[in-house]
Amino acid sequence: MVEPLHIGVLALQGAFREHRIMLEKCGAKVTEIRRLPGGSPWGGLEMFDGIVLPGGESTTMGRLLVDEGLLEPLRTCGQAGMPVYGSCAGLILLCREVEGPDGALIEQPRLGLLDARVRRNAFGRQADSFETRLDVKGVACDMEAVFIRAPVIVSCGPSVEVLCRVEGPLGPSPVAVRQGRVFATSFHPELTADSRFHAWFLNICLAWRSAGGFPS
Question: Does the predicted TM-score (pTM) go above 0.85?
Fold first, then answer.
């Protein structure tokens, strides 16, 4: 009998429960990560087939990652090839550079796994939140997507593939991207009834496991 995929969902702050529910709906085993499991050079994170970084408040999440000693181990796992997906604030944590709403670069703890520059709250305040339907390349057509105080990617390196764009305050902007096994969306697929994005991510995680996972 094949063991279900084991996904770690960062649960320091934000909408982690919704990701857990969606992943379990897709058949995965899910553990909420609040501290390092420990017991190995990878901090115990090698028990997972993939990691999800939820939406929330990216500054708070970044600070808690540092306080709990999770920032460097998570970065190391991503650099080693473990699949990582971040939504909204999770996207911000993944990016190499972060802008404030005014476009000025700001410093905050982040993983920097994604060769991209992101602008926080680019679509505006909570009152400017909206829903739309998107075609996400390689994932699904006509997907429901929820944008809440959403960031957008301002620029990205040549290794980053844009999966979807949305017309926004900066023009047609990337809101779903991929770099190797690192994935990020400005929107929240976990806040809809559509599980196709999570199912697609789990297929990437299955391929990672089948290929042998972490290098020995």
Answer: yes
Q: Is 188 a catalytic residue?
A: yes
For residue 132, what are the β-bridge partners? 145
Q: Are 140 and 197 in contact (CB under 8 A)?
A: yes
CA pair distance 32, 83, nearest whole angstrom: 16
3-state secondary structure of 128: helix
Using alpha carbons, list the distances in angstroms from residue 19 to 118, 206, 209, 214.
Answer: 22, 18, 20, 24
Cα separation, 106 vs 28, whole angstroms: 36
Q: Which CATH architecture has domain 6-210?
A: 3-Layer(aba) Sandwich (3.40)
Residues of the chain with pLDDT under 50: none
Q: Name which of 117, 96, 42 is nearest 72 in CA terms.
A: 42
**Which residue type is seen at 159?**
S
Catalytic member of 18, 99, 144, 190: 190
Whether 88 sits among the annotated catalytic residues: the reply is yes
**78's tokens:** 């991503």
Catalytic residue among 88, 95, 156, 205: 88
Instruction: Give 46-84 pLDDT, tens digit per residue.
Output: 899 999 999 999 999 999 999 999 999 999 999 999 999
What are the CA-CA distances from residue 91 to residues 47, 69, 105, 106, 150 (Å)?
Answer: 23, 20, 16, 15, 10
Angle subtended by helix axes 16-25 and 196-210, to nearest 10? 70
Q: Where are the domains of the chain?
A: 6-210
Interatomic CA distance for residues 105 and 100, integer angstroms: 6
